[in-house]
Amino acid sequence: MPEYQIPKTPSAYEFPLLIRHLLSRLSAQHTEQQIVYGDGRRFSYGDFFERVQRLANGLRSLGIGPGDTVAVMDWDSHRYLECFFAVPMIGAVLHTINIRLAPEQILYTINHACDTALLVHDDFVPLLEGFKGNAPTVRRIVRLSDQQREVGSGPNQVVFDDEYENLLSSAPGQFDAPDFDENIRATTFYTTGTTGNPKGVYFSQRQIVLHTLGVAVGLSSAAKQGRVHVDDVYMPITPMFHVHAWGIPYVATMLGLKQVYPGRYEPAKLLSLIETEKVTFSHCVPTILHMLLSDPAVEAMDLSNWKVIIGGSALPPALAQRALDLGIDVFGGYGMSETAPVLTLAQLNSDDVSADDPNRMEVRCKAGRPIPLVDLKVVDAELNEVPRDGLTTGEVIVRAPWLTQGYLEDPERSEELWQGGYLHTSDIGHVDKAGYLKITDRLKDVIKSGGEWISSLELEDIALTCEGVSEAAAIGIADERWGERPLLLLVAAKDAPSLDSVHVEFQRQAKIGTISEWAVPQRIELVLEIPKTSVGKTDKKKLREQYG
């Protein structure tokens, strides 16, 4: 009611929550802090601040403005970071294209998002040539190049409107940024599901600012373990196309951290950058960390100052132990594409950090506790909250001020997502008395056998403790008598595991009560590789298609 509104003098400025305001400190603080690109290029924050303004002016000169959608196809780079800020600064929408999707899926996202302009790295020009004439909304194409070289030839040759560095050099270094409604759409990203085309999730400028603030407070409020601060050196190992690299580049920029962008992910390059640039803070999915820690080079490296958040899927205890043995401060986090994405962090309490604390590993491997402004519940089928006893499972539902409000142009699935006024994650888990969430499975991945639910994640964790096992995936396969029975697929390390010994370990775990006897896999197979999704998660959909 009007009588309860605060009084406002006519000259007062109502400060909108816009992404450009995350840069407000850069012109006065941190101007000499560095942003490093993997090929050796270095920029100060002062340079970066000017380049963002030049890019905003350059996009305007191409006729791009409010309501347009600018899509980026690039490796993790300083250019991508500049787009994170410059595109929303002009009121346009940033579409971060998942370059690991199939070509037909990429074309679908370009058309579904109604992309107006494409910023394309040389490596993806051949892909773009295949789209010629099939992307009717695209009016401008800008080339992103690490080296000046000839690209394209023949009838489908891409005609560029400009080259990125030329666009910036010819544009003014000062941009008079206008105010917009903070609720306008700022970014769009497409996530793949089990069926149908990729789904478009979207976030407003207000949502991204609030997510940035929530994550920054969550990360920096820890007393010791997992604390992020201004002296950290940040390098993402989560693609920038994937939900803004979990939104952490916004946090790092706002706080003024040194930032390192590796380009294309190559294990030797990543490890070299960690060592030479003295990287102290990263985030990635378990498969990427496993890949890095399997490289013999890590044995000679000092990784004792490196903090790593693991998300995308659960942090396996065996991988966590390997990381801790190397001195890495590793811990879990949780979220999804639809949640911008960070919801929880598994930072330890100060009194839990001791190396001899038997619970510290278990806590690190959980999804964690909600960061500020997150209302998270675990509920039963009637949406009643289950006891926080660390045992009773249910679906994780959530509210927060930065959750996607639906799927782009998909009202039916949007309503399914927001059933009952909470966003439904489709993840199964439980919360303990200390408030730590543990994800026990995805609704679609849980194995339902003889009326009993078997956690595929739990089976995988046990398998990874067995000697000779490098990777593991558990799925349910059809069984005439029991509905489903678990199939366990293993990738061997250097020395292949004995399948009999793996089976014996599962029987031992059942005997001591870790799992039920019913959960012991009857079928265990060695495979050369386990398929991954475009963001590095185990592709259980493909496995079910292959073995189901």
Summarize the structure.
The protein is an alpha/beta fold.
**What is the mean pLDDT?**
93
What is the straight-line distance between the termini?
58 Å
Biggest β-sheet strands, sense, barrel: 7 strands, mixed
Number of strands: 25
Which characteristics define this entry?
alpha/beta; 16 helices; globular; 5-stranded mixed sheet; 548 residues; Rossmann fold; GMP Synthetase, Chain A, domain 3; 7-stranded mixed sheet
How does this structure look, described?
The protein is an alpha/beta fold. Among the domains are: 165 residues, Rossmann fold (3-Layer(aba) Sandwich), CATH 3.40.50; 101 residues, ANL, C-terminal domain (GMP Synthetase, Chain A, domain 3, 2-Layer Sandwich), CATH 3.30.300.30. The chain is built from 16 helices and 25 strands. It has a seven-stranded mixed beta sheet with strand order 7-6-5-3-4-8-9, sandwiched between helices. A five-stranded mixed beta sheet has the order 12-13-14-15-16. The chain is globular. It starts with 33 loop residues before the first strand and ends with a helix. The relative contact order is 0.08.
Write the layout of secondary structure elements.
Layout: E1 34-37, E2 42-44, H1 45-61, E3 69-73, H2 78-89, E4 93-96, H3 103-112, E5 117-121, H4 125-129, E6 140-144, E7 162-163, H5 164-169, E8 185-191, E9 199-204, H6 205-220, E10 233-234, H7 243-246, H8 248-255, E11 258-261, H9 267-276, E12 281-284, H10 286-293, E13 307-310, H11 317-325, E14 329-335, E15 342-345, H12 360-364, E16 369-370, E17 375-379, E18 394-399, H13 411-417, E19 423-431, E20 437-442, E21 447-449, E22 452-454, H14 456-464, E23 469-479, E24 483-492, H15 499-511, E25 523-526, H16 540-547
Parallel strand pairs: 1-11, 3-4, 3-5, 4-8, 5-6, 6-7, 10-11, 12-13, 13-14, 24-25
Antiparallel strand pairs: 1-2, 8-9, 14-15, 15-16, 17-18, 18-19, 19-20, 21-22, 23-24
Helix pairs in contact: 1-2, 6-8
